Amino acid sequence: MKPSRYWRNESGAAMAEFALVLLPFTAMIFAIIYGALMFYANQTLQYATEAAARCYSVDAATCNSTTAVRNYAAGRYKGPNIGASFTATATGCGHTVTGTGSFPINIVVWSTSIAMNASACFP
């Protein structure tokens, strides 16, 4: 068999191309999924913070202390587990609640954690 014949033979080329494309494609799929989860976590953190600030300002029976406000906000947060924690103060623009969390990202070849913050004030 001549050596030039090996260069024209394409059997197995699809498998080699698939092996080269598999890792970037998988990383892209996981990046899209984690991006959507991160957006969802951020939105639910913001919702829980706003609801707790309103409760702290309006509903004195339910949210009568900073501990009650933190528990109320933690109960309103329904997103992924980001270790959400809330603080409440009655200074500044009115009743302020701040929520923080850390969203872990573990994509195929990359791992990091992104800090999330939300703040709401209700007079």
Describe the structure.
The protein has 123 residues and is α+β, with helices and mostly antiparallel strands. It contains three helices and three strands, in the order αααβββ. Strands 1-2-3 form a three-stranded antiparallel beta sheet. A hairpin with a 5-residue loop joins strand 1 and strand 2. The longest helix has 46 residues, at 13-58.
The computed structural class is: alpha+beta
Order of helices and strands: HHHEEE
Shape: rod-shaped
Number of domains: 1
Helix proportion range? 40-55%
Counting DSSP E segments of at least 2 residues, the number of strands comes to: 3
Radius of gyration in whole Å, from Cα? 25 Å
Biggest sheet: strands side by side, in what order? Answer: 1-2-3
The major β-sheet equals:
3 strands, antiparallel
Query: Which percent range describes the beta-strand content?
Result: 25-35%
Please count the helical segments.
Answer: 3
N/C terminus separation? 86 Å
User: Uncertain regions: pLDDT < 50 for 5+ in a row?
Assistant: none
Mean of all residue-level pLDDT scores: 88
List keywords for this structure.
123 residues; alpha+beta; rod-shaped; 3-stranded antiparallel sheet; 51% helix; 3 helices
